[in-house]
Amino acid sequence: MSNNEYEVVATVSPRSLGPTSLFDAEEAITSDNVQQFNSDPSDIRDSKRALSRAGFHVFEEASSNTTISIGGTAKLFKEFFGAKLTKQKTEIRPDTTIEFMATSEDPSEALMNAPDEFKQLIEGAVIARPPTYFAPHPIPPLASVHANAYPYMMVPDGVSVVLRASHVHRLGVTGKNVVVGMLDTGHYRHAFFSSRGYRLLSTLLAPGASDPADDANGHGTGESANVFACAPDCRLRMIKMGNDTVGAINAALNSNPKPQILTNSWGYSADTPGSSIPNWLKPLEAAVANAVSQGVVVCFSAGNGHYGFPGSHPDVISVGGVHVNLPDENDLEASSYASSFNSSWYPGRQVPDLCGLTGKSVNIGGAKAPSLMLPVQASASLDGIAPSTGSNSDGWGLFSGTSAACPQIAGICALMLEKDPTLTPAEVKDKLKKSARDVKKGTTQMGHTATNGPDLATGSGLADAKWAYINTMGDVAATFFSGTKEQQLAMVSSGAMPEFSKEFISDMIDTLRSR
Protein backbone atom coordinates (compact mmCIF):
# COMPACT_ATOMS: atom_id res chain seq x y z
CA MET A 1 0.00 0.00 0.00
CA SER A 2 1.08 3.60 -0.55
CA ASN A 3 0.84 6.01 2.37
CA ASN A 4 -2.57 7.41 1.44
CA GLU A 5 -4.24 4.02 0.94
CA TYR A 6 -4.64 3.45 4.66
CA GLU A 7 -8.21 4.31 5.59
CA VAL A 8 -7.23 5.42 9.09
CA VAL A 9 -3.95 6.68 10.56
CA ALA A 10 -3.40 6.82 14.33
CA THR A 11 -0.79 7.62 16.96
CA VAL A 12 0.02 5.00 19.60
CA SER A 13 1.78 5.64 22.91
CA PRO A 14 3.74 2.70 24.37
CA ARG A 15 4.20 2.58 28.16
CA SER A 16 5.95 5.74 29.41
CA LEU A 17 9.19 5.59 31.40
CA GLY A 18 7.77 7.94 34.02
CA PRO A 19 4.98 7.15 36.49
CA THR A 20 2.30 8.93 34.44
CA SER A 21 0.82 7.95 31.10
CA LEU A 22 1.16 10.42 28.24
CA PHE A 23 -2.63 10.67 28.21
CA ASP A 24 -2.90 11.21 31.97
CA ALA A 25 -0.36 14.04 32.12
CA GLU A 26 -1.82 17.01 33.97
CA GLU A 27 1.17 19.32 33.58
CA ALA A 28 2.26 20.77 30.25
CA ILE A 29 4.61 18.53 28.28
CA THR A 30 7.63 20.62 27.34
CA SER A 31 11.28 20.11 26.44
CA ASP A 32 12.02 20.13 30.19
CA ASN A 33 9.97 17.04 31.07
CA VAL A 34 9.20 15.20 27.82
CA GLN A 35 11.81 12.51 28.59
CA GLN A 36 9.55 10.97 31.25
CA PHE A 37 6.99 10.25 28.51
CA ASN A 38 9.54 8.44 26.35
CA SER A 39 9.33 4.64 26.25
CA ASP A 40 11.84 1.88 26.81
CA PRO A 41 13.25 0.64 23.47
CA SER A 42 12.05 -2.90 24.27
CA ASP A 43 8.50 -1.65 24.86
CA ILE A 44 8.59 0.24 21.57
CA ARG A 45 9.86 -2.86 19.77
CA ASP A 46 7.26 -5.15 21.36
CA SER A 47 4.46 -2.67 20.66
CA LYS A 48 5.43 -2.47 17.00
CA ARG A 49 5.51 -6.26 16.75
CA ALA A 50 2.10 -6.62 18.38
CA LEU A 51 0.54 -3.99 16.14
CA SER A 52 2.14 -5.44 13.02
CA ARG A 53 0.96 -8.96 13.86
CA ALA A 54 -2.55 -7.59 14.37
CA GLY A 55 -2.47 -6.34 10.77
CA PHE A 56 -1.55 -2.66 11.18
CA HIS A 57 1.11 -1.00 9.07
CA VAL A 58 3.79 0.58 11.27
CA PHE A 59 5.31 3.75 9.82
CA GLU A 60 8.89 3.20 10.99
CA GLU A 61 10.18 6.50 9.61
CA ALA A 62 7.43 8.43 11.42
CA SER A 63 7.81 6.86 14.85
CA SER A 64 9.82 8.17 17.79
CA ASN A 65 10.87 7.24 21.31
CA THR A 66 7.49 8.56 22.48
CA THR A 67 4.90 7.49 19.90
CA ILE A 68 4.31 5.07 17.02
CA SER A 69 2.32 5.94 13.88
CA ILE A 70 0.15 3.18 12.40
CA GLY A 71 -2.29 2.77 9.52
CA GLY A 72 -5.11 0.34 8.80
CA THR A 73 -8.76 -0.09 7.93
CA ALA A 74 -11.64 1.12 10.07
CA LYS A 75 -12.61 -2.53 10.53
CA LEU A 76 -9.17 -3.40 11.90
CA PHE A 77 -9.27 -0.48 14.35
CA LYS A 78 -12.66 -1.66 15.58
CA GLU A 79 -11.47 -5.25 16.01
CA PHE A 80 -8.27 -4.34 17.87
CA PHE A 81 -9.19 -1.23 19.85
CA GLY A 82 -12.96 -1.71 20.00
CA ALA A 83 -13.41 1.72 18.44
CA LYS A 84 -16.35 2.47 16.19
CA LEU A 85 -15.22 4.95 13.55
CA THR A 86 -17.41 7.24 11.48
CA LYS A 87 -16.78 9.76 8.73
CA GLN A 88 -16.35 13.34 9.89
CA LYS A 89 -15.56 16.61 8.15
CA THR A 90 -13.16 19.41 9.03
CA GLU A 91 -12.13 22.68 7.42
CA ILE A 92 -8.45 22.72 6.38
CA ARG A 93 -8.60 26.26 5.00
CA PRO A 94 -11.42 28.77 4.40
CA ASP A 95 -14.16 27.23 2.22
CA THR A 96 -12.34 23.88 1.92
CA THR A 97 -13.39 20.81 3.93
CA ILE A 98 -12.21 17.21 3.80
CA GLU A 99 -13.53 13.95 5.19
CA PHE A 100 -11.67 11.69 7.61
CA MET A 101 -12.42 8.73 9.86
CA ALA A 102 -12.58 9.29 13.61
CA THR A 103 -14.11 7.92 16.77
CA SER A 104 -17.79 8.68 17.06
CA GLU A 105 -17.59 9.92 20.66
CA ASP A 106 -16.45 13.37 21.79
CA PRO A 107 -13.18 13.91 19.87
CA SER A 108 -11.68 15.82 22.80
CA GLU A 109 -11.54 12.58 24.82
CA ALA A 110 -11.29 10.08 21.97
CA LEU A 111 -8.71 7.79 23.56
CA MET A 112 -8.69 4.23 22.21
CA ASN A 113 -7.64 1.59 24.74
CA ALA A 114 -5.59 -1.46 23.81
CA PRO A 115 -6.93 -5.00 24.35
CA ASP A 116 -6.43 -6.40 27.86
CA GLU A 117 -3.40 -8.49 26.89
CA PHE A 118 -1.58 -5.36 25.68
CA LYS A 119 -2.64 -2.80 28.31
CA GLN A 120 0.65 -3.16 30.19
CA LEU A 121 2.49 -2.40 26.95
CA ILE A 122 0.33 0.22 25.19
CA GLU A 123 -1.11 3.23 27.05
CA GLY A 124 -3.57 4.07 24.32
CA ALA A 125 -4.02 5.45 20.82
CA VAL A 126 -5.69 8.43 19.18
CA ILE A 127 -6.87 8.92 15.60
CA ALA A 128 -4.85 11.47 13.60
CA ARG A 129 -6.94 14.46 12.58
CA PRO A 130 -6.12 16.76 9.63
CA PRO A 131 -4.81 20.21 10.62
CA THR A 132 -5.97 23.60 9.41
CA TYR A 133 -3.51 25.32 7.08
CA PHE A 134 -3.38 28.95 8.23
CA ALA A 135 -3.86 30.23 5.23
CA PRO A 136 4.05 27.86 -14.06
CA HIS A 137 6.32 30.66 -15.21
CA PRO A 138 9.33 31.84 -13.17
CA ILE A 139 8.21 35.49 -13.38
CA PRO A 140 4.96 36.39 -11.58
CA PRO A 141 2.17 38.16 -13.49
CA LEU A 142 1.42 41.80 -12.81
CA ALA A 143 -2.05 41.34 -11.41
CA SER A 144 -4.27 44.35 -10.93
CA VAL A 145 -5.00 45.35 -7.35
CA HIS A 146 -8.59 44.80 -6.27
CA ALA A 147 -10.46 48.05 -5.59
CA ASN A 148 -11.03 47.05 -1.95
CA ALA A 149 -7.52 45.69 -1.37
CA TYR A 150 -4.02 47.20 -1.17
CA PRO A 151 -0.70 46.81 -3.03
CA TYR A 152 0.78 43.34 -2.77
CA MET A 153 4.44 42.33 -2.46
CA MET A 154 6.55 40.00 -4.56
CA VAL A 155 8.95 37.33 -3.34
CA PRO A 156 11.79 37.34 -2.75
CA ASP A 157 12.56 41.07 -2.87
CA GLY A 158 9.49 42.54 -1.17
CA VAL A 159 9.77 40.28 1.85
CA SER A 160 13.57 40.45 2.17
CA VAL A 161 13.64 44.25 1.99
CA VAL A 162 10.90 44.94 4.55
CA LEU A 163 12.25 42.33 6.99
CA ARG A 164 15.76 43.74 6.36
CA ALA A 165 17.11 40.33 5.38
CA SER A 166 18.55 41.82 2.19
CA HIS A 167 21.00 43.82 4.35
CA VAL A 168 22.27 40.59 5.89
CA HIS A 169 22.60 38.95 2.46
CA ARG A 170 24.92 41.77 1.37
CA LEU A 171 27.19 40.81 4.27
CA GLY A 172 27.51 37.30 2.83
CA VAL A 173 25.09 35.62 5.23
CA THR A 174 22.36 33.74 3.35
CA GLY A 175 21.53 30.68 5.48
CA LYS A 176 24.15 28.59 3.72
CA ASN A 177 24.10 24.88 4.70
CA VAL A 178 21.33 25.38 7.27
CA VAL A 179 18.59 22.76 6.81
CA VAL A 180 15.00 23.96 7.20
CA GLY A 181 12.21 21.40 7.40
CA MET A 182 8.74 22.50 6.30
CA LEU A 183 5.67 20.45 7.20
CA ASP A 184 2.93 21.27 4.72
CA THR A 185 0.87 20.14 1.71
CA GLY A 186 3.87 19.25 -0.45
CA HIS A 187 6.14 20.94 -2.95
CA TYR A 188 5.79 21.36 -6.69
CA ARG A 189 9.00 22.03 -8.65
CA HIS A 190 7.91 25.45 -9.85
CA ALA A 191 10.24 27.32 -12.18
CA PHE A 192 10.37 30.12 -9.60
CA PHE A 193 12.65 27.94 -7.48
CA SER A 194 14.82 26.34 -10.16
CA SER A 195 15.45 29.62 -11.99
CA ARG A 196 16.88 31.11 -8.79
CA GLY A 197 18.98 28.09 -7.90
CA TYR A 198 17.23 27.47 -4.59
CA ARG A 199 18.28 24.26 -2.85
CA LEU A 200 15.41 21.81 -2.42
CA LEU A 201 16.01 18.42 -0.83
CA SER A 202 13.77 15.50 -1.82
CA THR A 203 10.24 15.61 -0.40
CA LEU A 204 9.47 13.20 2.45
CA LEU A 205 6.06 11.57 2.69
CA ALA A 206 4.51 11.54 6.15
CA PRO A 207 1.88 8.91 7.05
CA GLY A 208 -1.20 9.41 4.91
CA ALA A 209 0.58 11.41 2.18
CA SER A 210 1.39 10.35 -1.38
CA ASP A 211 2.90 11.63 -4.64
CA PRO A 212 5.91 13.72 -3.55
CA ALA A 213 5.99 15.73 -6.79
CA ASP A 214 2.40 16.97 -6.45
CA ASP A 215 0.95 19.85 -4.43
CA ALA A 216 -2.67 20.05 -5.51
CA ASN A 217 -3.45 22.51 -2.73
CA GLY A 218 -0.55 24.88 -3.39
CA HIS A 219 -0.09 25.96 0.23
CA GLY A 220 3.27 24.28 0.82
CA THR A 221 4.78 25.40 -2.48
CA GLY A 222 3.69 29.01 -2.07
CA GLU A 223 4.67 29.45 1.55
CA SER A 224 8.10 27.89 1.01
CA ALA A 225 9.03 30.92 -1.12
CA ASN A 226 8.98 32.94 2.11
CA VAL A 227 11.80 30.83 3.57
CA PHE A 228 14.02 31.48 0.56
CA ALA A 229 13.17 35.19 0.57
CA CYS A 230 14.97 35.44 3.91
CA ALA A 231 17.53 32.62 3.56
CA PRO A 232 18.20 32.06 -0.17
CA ASP A 233 21.02 29.56 0.39
CA CYS A 234 19.39 27.35 3.01
CA ARG A 235 18.46 23.78 2.15
CA LEU A 236 14.72 23.18 2.35
CA ARG A 237 13.18 19.80 3.08
CA MET A 238 9.43 19.53 2.50
CA ILE A 239 7.63 16.95 4.63
CA LYS A 240 4.32 16.36 2.87
CA MET A 241 1.65 15.75 5.48
CA GLY A 242 -1.47 13.65 5.60
CA ASN A 243 -3.60 13.62 8.74
CA ASP A 244 -0.82 12.42 11.05
CA THR A 245 0.95 15.58 12.21
CA VAL A 246 2.82 13.70 14.95
CA GLY A 247 4.20 11.25 12.41
CA ALA A 248 5.18 14.17 10.17
CA ILE A 249 7.26 15.77 12.93
CA ASN A 250 8.89 12.43 13.72
CA ALA A 251 9.64 11.83 10.04
CA ALA A 252 11.36 15.21 9.87
CA LEU A 253 13.46 14.49 12.96
CA ASN A 254 14.45 11.06 11.60
CA SER A 255 15.52 12.41 8.20
CA ASN A 256 19.09 12.90 7.00
CA PRO A 257 20.26 15.61 7.03
CA LYS A 258 18.29 16.42 10.15
CA PRO A 259 16.63 19.85 10.04
CA GLN A 260 17.92 22.52 12.40
CA ILE A 261 14.65 24.43 12.00
CA LEU A 262 11.05 23.27 11.51
CA THR A 263 8.50 25.71 10.09
CA ASN A 264 4.80 24.92 10.47
CA SER A 265 2.05 27.01 8.88
CA TRP A 266 -0.78 24.94 10.33
CA GLY A 267 -2.40 24.06 13.62
CA TYR A 268 -5.62 23.34 15.45
CA SER A 269 -7.90 26.08 16.74
CA ALA A 270 -8.17 24.37 20.09
CA ASP A 271 -6.51 26.48 22.82
CA THR A 272 -9.80 28.28 23.37
CA PRO A 273 -10.71 30.28 26.49
CA GLY A 274 -11.48 28.04 29.45
CA SER A 275 -10.44 24.80 27.76
CA SER A 276 -7.75 22.22 28.60
CA ILE A 277 -5.65 20.16 26.23
CA PRO A 278 -7.58 17.11 24.93
CA ASN A 279 -6.12 13.60 24.82
CA TRP A 280 -5.92 13.52 21.05
CA LEU A 281 -3.46 16.45 21.05
CA LYS A 282 -1.15 15.22 23.83
CA PRO A 283 1.00 13.15 21.42
CA LEU A 284 1.48 16.30 19.34
CA GLU A 285 2.41 18.28 22.46
CA ALA A 286 5.05 15.65 23.23
CA ALA A 287 6.31 15.57 19.62
CA VAL A 288 6.91 19.34 19.67
CA ALA A 289 8.66 19.12 23.04
CA ASN A 290 10.81 16.25 21.75
CA ALA A 291 11.93 18.30 18.76
CA VAL A 292 12.96 21.28 20.87
CA SER A 293 14.70 19.04 23.43
CA GLN A 294 16.84 17.78 20.53
CA GLY A 295 17.96 21.35 19.77
CA VAL A 296 15.64 21.97 16.82
CA VAL A 297 14.17 25.47 16.47
CA VAL A 298 10.42 25.02 15.97
CA CYS A 299 8.30 27.84 14.47
CA PHE A 300 4.48 27.77 14.33
CA SER A 301 1.88 30.13 12.94
CA ALA A 302 -0.31 31.66 15.63
CA GLY A 303 -3.35 31.45 13.35
CA ASN A 304 -5.68 33.70 11.42
CA GLY A 305 -8.33 34.29 14.03
CA HIS A 306 -7.66 30.79 15.38
CA TYR A 307 -6.62 29.84 18.90
CA GLY A 308 -3.70 28.06 17.33
CA PHE A 309 -1.98 25.05 18.82
CA PRO A 310 0.90 24.15 18.71
CA GLY A 311 1.40 27.88 18.16
CA SER A 312 0.67 28.34 21.86
CA HIS A 313 3.17 25.73 23.05
CA PRO A 314 5.75 27.50 25.25
CA ASP A 315 8.74 25.87 23.50
CA VAL A 316 7.91 27.12 19.99
CA ILE A 317 8.43 30.48 18.31
CA SER A 318 4.84 31.62 17.88
CA VAL A 319 4.46 33.85 14.83
CA GLY A 320 1.75 36.49 14.41
CA GLY A 321 1.15 39.04 11.68
CA VAL A 322 2.04 42.65 10.91
CA HIS A 323 0.80 44.54 7.86
CA VAL A 324 3.01 47.08 6.08
CA ASN A 325 1.24 50.00 4.43
CA LEU A 326 3.21 50.30 1.22
CA PRO A 327 4.98 52.20 -0.18
CA ASP A 328 6.19 53.28 3.28
CA GLU A 329 7.97 50.19 4.62
CA ASN A 330 8.10 51.75 8.09
CA ASP A 331 4.32 52.23 8.30
CA LEU A 332 3.49 49.11 10.29
CA GLU A 333 0.31 47.95 11.98
CA ALA A 334 -0.96 44.80 13.67
CA SER A 335 -2.76 42.66 11.12
CA SER A 336 -6.54 42.57 11.50
CA TYR A 337 -6.36 39.04 10.03
CA ALA A 338 -3.92 37.54 12.55
CA SER A 339 -4.43 35.84 15.91
CA SER A 340 -3.48 37.04 19.38
CA PHE A 341 -4.51 35.44 22.66
CA ASN A 342 -3.60 34.31 26.14
CA SER A 343 -3.23 30.54 26.26
CA SER A 344 -5.66 28.64 28.46
CA TRP A 345 -3.45 25.56 28.41
CA TYR A 346 -0.17 27.22 29.39
CA PRO A 347 -0.73 29.89 32.08
CA GLY A 348 1.22 33.06 31.36
CA ARG A 349 1.84 32.12 27.73
CA GLN A 350 0.99 34.95 25.33
CA VAL A 351 0.59 34.40 21.59
CA PRO A 352 2.40 35.52 19.44
CA ASP A 353 6.07 35.94 20.38
CA LEU A 354 6.71 38.22 17.41
CA CYS A 355 5.48 38.71 13.86
CA GLY A 356 6.24 38.30 10.19
CA LEU A 357 4.52 40.02 7.26
CA THR A 358 0.82 39.38 6.78
CA GLY A 359 -1.99 41.12 4.95
CA LYS A 360 -4.93 42.71 6.72
CA SER A 361 -8.54 41.67 6.34
CA VAL A 362 -10.38 42.83 3.25
CA ASN A 363 -13.76 41.88 1.83
CA ILE A 364 -13.21 40.86 -1.78
CA GLY A 365 -14.98 37.50 -1.90
CA GLY A 366 -11.83 35.36 -1.96
CA ALA A 367 -8.49 35.60 -0.21
CA LYS A 368 -8.98 37.37 3.12
CA ALA A 369 -5.54 39.03 3.23
CA PRO A 370 -3.98 38.98 -0.27
CA SER A 371 -0.61 40.61 0.40
CA LEU A 372 1.89 38.27 -1.31
CA MET A 373 2.21 36.96 -4.86
CA LEU A 374 3.41 33.38 -4.35
CA PRO A 375 4.26 30.50 -6.73
CA VAL A 376 1.93 27.48 -6.75
CA GLN A 377 1.30 24.42 -8.87
CA ALA A 378 -0.73 25.39 -11.94
CA SER A 379 -4.45 24.82 -11.32
CA ALA A 380 -3.84 24.14 -7.61
CA SER A 381 -6.58 25.18 -5.20
CA LEU A 382 -4.73 28.39 -4.31
CA ASP A 383 -4.10 29.20 -7.98
CA GLY A 384 -7.75 30.00 -8.54
CA ILE A 385 -8.39 31.96 -5.35
CA ALA A 386 -9.67 35.53 -5.79
CA PRO A 387 -8.32 38.09 -6.50
CA SER A 388 -7.16 36.71 -9.82
CA THR A 389 -3.49 36.85 -10.79
CA GLY A 390 -4.40 36.69 -14.46
CA SER A 391 -5.86 33.20 -14.84
CA ASN A 392 -6.80 30.20 -12.72
CA SER A 393 -3.93 28.13 -14.13
CA ASP A 394 -0.95 30.50 -14.32
CA GLY A 395 0.89 28.97 -11.36
CA TRP A 396 0.60 32.02 -9.11
CA GLY A 397 -1.67 32.98 -6.23
CA LEU A 398 -2.27 36.03 -4.03
CA PHE A 399 -2.50 35.06 -0.36
CA SER A 400 -0.70 35.39 2.97
CA GLY A 401 -1.84 35.08 6.60
CA THR A 402 0.39 33.89 9.42
CA SER A 403 1.08 30.92 7.14
CA ALA A 404 3.39 33.29 5.26
CA ALA A 405 4.77 34.99 8.35
CA CYS A 406 5.99 31.75 9.95
CA PRO A 407 8.38 30.62 7.16
CA GLN A 408 9.74 34.16 6.98
CA ILE A 409 10.80 33.86 10.62
CA ALA A 410 12.24 30.40 9.93
CA GLY A 411 14.38 31.96 7.20
CA ILE A 412 15.69 34.59 9.62
CA CYS A 413 16.49 31.81 12.10
CA ALA A 414 18.58 30.19 9.35
CA LEU A 415 20.62 33.39 9.00
CA MET A 416 21.26 33.36 12.74
CA LEU A 417 22.25 29.70 12.83
CA GLU A 418 24.62 30.11 9.91
CA LYS A 419 26.63 32.59 11.99
CA ASP A 420 26.26 30.78 15.30
CA PRO A 421 25.14 27.13 15.02
CA THR A 422 25.55 26.71 18.79
CA LEU A 423 22.46 28.79 19.55
CA THR A 424 19.76 26.86 21.41
CA PRO A 425 16.08 27.18 20.44
CA ALA A 426 15.48 29.33 23.53
CA GLU A 427 18.39 31.62 22.62
CA VAL A 428 17.16 32.01 19.05
CA LYS A 429 13.71 32.98 20.31
CA ASP A 430 15.16 35.42 22.82
CA LYS A 431 17.33 37.17 20.22
CA LEU A 432 14.45 37.40 17.75
CA LYS A 433 12.21 39.00 20.35
CA LYS A 434 14.86 41.45 21.53
CA SER A 435 15.65 42.52 17.97
CA ALA A 436 12.07 42.98 16.70
CA ARG A 437 10.77 46.37 15.53
CA ASP A 438 8.07 47.79 17.75
CA VAL A 439 4.61 48.04 16.19
CA LYS A 440 2.48 50.76 17.76
CA LYS A 441 -0.88 50.65 16.02
CA GLY A 442 -3.43 48.30 14.50
CA THR A 443 -5.80 45.72 15.94
CA THR A 444 -5.75 41.94 15.51
CA GLN A 445 -8.69 39.74 14.61
CA MET A 446 -9.12 39.01 18.33
CA GLY A 447 -9.46 42.74 19.06
CA HIS A 448 -6.09 43.36 20.72
CA THR A 449 -4.46 46.68 19.84
CA ALA A 450 -0.74 47.26 19.36
CA THR A 451 0.86 49.87 21.63
CA ASN A 452 4.34 51.07 22.56
CA GLY A 453 6.54 48.16 23.63
CA PRO A 454 5.66 44.46 23.81
CA ASP A 455 1.94 43.75 23.67
CA LEU A 456 -0.52 40.92 23.10
CA ALA A 457 -1.30 42.06 19.56
CA THR A 458 2.16 41.62 18.03
CA GLY A 459 4.34 40.25 20.83
CA SER A 460 7.71 41.96 20.50
CA GLY A 461 6.82 43.37 17.08
CA LEU A 462 7.97 42.73 13.50
CA ALA A 463 11.05 40.56 13.02
CA ASP A 464 14.17 42.46 11.98
CA ALA A 465 16.71 40.16 10.31
CA LYS A 466 19.50 42.70 10.32
CA TRP A 467 19.19 43.50 14.02
CA ALA A 468 18.87 39.79 14.87
CA TYR A 469 22.08 39.17 12.93
CA ILE A 470 23.90 41.95 14.79
CA ASN A 471 22.73 40.50 18.12
CA THR A 472 23.99 37.08 17.04
CA MET A 473 27.29 38.55 15.88
CA GLY A 474 27.70 40.15 19.30
CA ASP A 475 27.93 36.71 20.90
CA VAL A 476 30.22 35.46 18.14
CA ALA A 477 32.48 38.48 18.64
CA ALA A 478 32.58 37.84 22.39
CA THR A 479 33.69 34.26 21.74
CA PHE A 480 36.28 35.51 19.25
CA PHE A 481 37.86 38.09 21.53
CA SER A 482 37.99 35.67 24.48
CA GLY A 483 39.60 32.90 22.41
CA THR A 484 43.22 32.01 21.76
CA LYS A 485 44.98 33.22 18.62
CA GLU A 486 44.55 29.75 17.11
CA GLN A 487 40.82 29.80 17.86
CA GLN A 488 40.51 33.30 16.41
CA LEU A 489 42.29 32.27 13.20
CA ALA A 490 40.03 29.22 12.92
CA MET A 491 36.90 31.39 13.29
CA VAL A 492 38.09 33.81 10.61
CA SER A 493 39.09 30.97 8.26
CA SER A 494 35.71 29.25 8.63
CA GLY A 495 33.81 32.50 8.09
CA ALA A 496 32.24 32.36 11.56
CA MET A 497 33.96 35.67 12.34
CA PRO A 498 34.12 38.02 9.34
CA GLU A 499 36.94 40.46 8.78
CA PHE A 500 35.02 43.66 9.46
CA SER A 501 35.23 46.22 6.69
CA LYS A 502 34.65 49.96 7.04
CA GLU A 503 31.37 49.45 5.20
CA PHE A 504 30.24 46.85 7.75
CA ILE A 505 31.08 49.09 10.70
CA SER A 506 29.30 52.02 9.04
CA ASP A 507 26.28 49.84 8.30
CA MET A 508 26.17 48.65 11.92
CA ILE A 509 26.28 52.24 13.19
CA ASP A 510 23.42 53.20 10.85
CA THR A 511 21.39 50.25 12.11
CA LEU A 512 22.00 51.19 15.73
CA ARG A 513 20.91 54.75 15.01
CA SER A 514 17.72 53.52 13.32
CA ARG A 515 16.73 51.72 16.51
Tell me the layout of helices and strands.
Elements: E1 8-14, H1 41-54, E2 57-58, E3 68-72, H2 74-81, E4 85-93, E5 96-103, E6 122-127, E7 132-133, E8 153-154, H3 157-162, H4 165-170, E9 179-184, H5 191-194, E10 199-200, E11 204-205, H6 219-230, E12 235-240, H7 245-254, E13 261-264, E14 266-269, H8 282-293, E15 297-301, E16 308-309, E17 317-324, E18 332-334, E19 341-342, E20 350-351, E21 354-357, E22 372-375, E23 396-399, H9 402-419, H10 425-435, H11 465-482, H12 485-494, H13 502-514
Parallel strand pairs: 8-22, 9-12, 9-13, 10-12, 11-12, 13-15, 15-17, 17-21
Antiparallel strand pairs: 1-3, 1-6, 2-3, 4-5, 7-14, 14-16, 17-18, 19-20, 22-23
Helix pairs in contact: 6-9, 7-8, 9-11, 10-11
CATH architecture label name of the largest domain: 3-Layer(aba) Sandwich
Strand content: 15-25%
General shape? globular
Terminus-to-terminus distance? 57 Å
Mean pLDDT: 88
Number of DSSP strand runs:
23
The CATH topology of the largest domain is Rossmann fold
How many structurally independent domains?
Answer: 3
CATH superfamily annotation of the largest domain:
Peptidase S8/S53 domain
